[in-house]
């Protein structure tokens, strides 16, 4: 995937010329195989992107957005950490909500995307420019987010190791480094975010099936 990040509106949520009532922001997770369409494919099954094809039928006044960023650890990796992605999300979202700073926000995130959201909200709490985003956040839905580290690093290491041996000379990926330092990163972020837990409605989903990648069973990425 290209290194540039973006925030794309996939449903405007405008009905009868009225403005949307809520913003829903979807953030994908680790992209181990370098899929250019990963931000959309994360939320797609049977060629249906449920955030665009199904969700608006239940919430027609919701503006739905996809945040895309380089979460690749093998092909075209860049020297960006979770904080860098979090800052870019805050920047884009602040611009998108220039005329509706108090509109409620719900974040929907998968895997590493959950850590990006948590870091963004920690930053927003202490940054005046982005405080409106923190205050407007109503809820977060976590799908398989490694709050305590989990096996996310094993997934990234497997793919990154395979690609590096196939194509020697690849630079070590800084995003993977941030996740593999003895759990320090996730421990620090968990403590930073803990003080905000009562500020939002939170839903967390975990995995029950093992993940297979490149013919190898790597177990559950995020256990209960």
Helix/strand order, N-terminal first: EEHEEHHEHEHHEHHHEEE
For the record, the CATH class is Alpha Beta
Query: How many strand units?
Result: 10
Largest sheet: 6 strands, mixed
Overall number of domains: 1
CATH topology, what is it called? Rossmann fold
CATH architecture: 3-Layer(aba) Sandwich
Structural class: alpha/beta
- Uncertain runs are none
> What portion of residues is helical?
25-40%
In DSSP terms (H or I, runs of 4 or more residues), the helix count works out at: 9
Task: Sum up the overall morphology in one term.
Answer: globular
How far the N terminus sits from the C terminus, by CA atoms, comes to 30 Å
| Gyration radius, rounded | 17 Å
Identify the strand order in the major beta sheet: 1-5-2-6-7-8
Q: Tell me the β content.
A: 15-25%
Kindly report the average pLDDT value.
Answer: 82
Describe what you observe in this structure.
The protein has a single domain (6-219), classed as 3-Layer(aba) Sandwich (Rossmann fold), CATH 3.40.50. A hairpin with a 2-residue loop joins β9 and β10 (216-219). The strands form three sheets. The chain has a six-stranded mixed sheet. It has nine helices and ten strands. It is an alpha/beta fold and 224 residues long.
List the helices and strands and how they pair.
Elements: E1 6-11, E2 22-27, H1 38-41, E3 44-45, E4 48-49, H2 50-53, H3 55-58, E5 62-68, H4 82-96, E6 105-110, H5 112-125, H6 131-136, E7 137-143, H7 152-166, H8 174-180, H9 184-194, E8 201-205, E9 211-213, E10 216-219
Parallel strand pairs: 2-5, 2-6, 6-7, 7-8
Antiparallel strand pairs: 1-5, 3-4, 9-10
Helix pairs in contact: 4-5, 5-9
